[in-house]
Amino acid sequence: MLALGVATAATVATTPTSGRPGVTAEAPSRSEPASPAMELVSAVTASENISYRIRLTNSGPQGLTYEGAFDPKTATGYARVGQDDSVMTELLINGTRYEGAEPPPGKLPADKGPGERYGKYAQYPGKYDRLSLYADGSTVLGAAAPDPAALFTALKSANATISDNPDGTLHFGYTTSEEKGSTTTSGDVTLDGDGRIAKVVLTGTWQSTAKGRLDKGTFGSTLELFDYGVAVKVERPTNVVRVTK
After folding, report:
1. Cα–chain-centroid distance for residue 192?
2. What is the pLDDT of residues 45-59, one digit of tens each?
3. DSSP codes, 70-104
């Protein structure tokens, strides 16, 4: 299975820390402005059950950019990520998933090309209701990338705090800990003119002693959602091999 965004998915964990309360959102009184959590709930509600285009950019020297579109009503969409020798492609047509590779635009590197099999797709059994932009859909960005309406639920599971930035955008943060390491994550959410989720910028740091030494690192991703309501049409590939298991 194509696991897009593995570089950051491996570090953006959202396992709740025991003993910490989850995010709660209570309806504000008429005399009080909406809380940041309620603002996010409203944005999530506005982003449900509507098609959109997506762009997911991972930072760092190995960072890749994924682009596509998805219609949750028909479970139809696509995602592509360009590499030096191919464009890895995922297609979802009425819930049926296909994954394959297409030739990259421009000239291939000198050591690439011979033996490449473009245009051949694997068809996976079962039905799917979202793109597999991340291997782990339990992560915050892993949940929001194929389904922007899942952002609040993912943040709640991560025991995140949600607040307002001075510029009017929403801010969230959370820390997760394991036996041999921890991860601290923060992010900012921008809404569009219709109150829908338009951008999620996520950054964080991690540390681990899993290898018998202290390792540290940083990560970052930007998720952009736009053209809500766009018509999403995807054609079934002609060269298909069915995957039986």
Report:
1. 18
2. 999 899 999 999 988
3. EETTTTEEEEEEE-SS-EEEEEEETTEEEEEEEPP
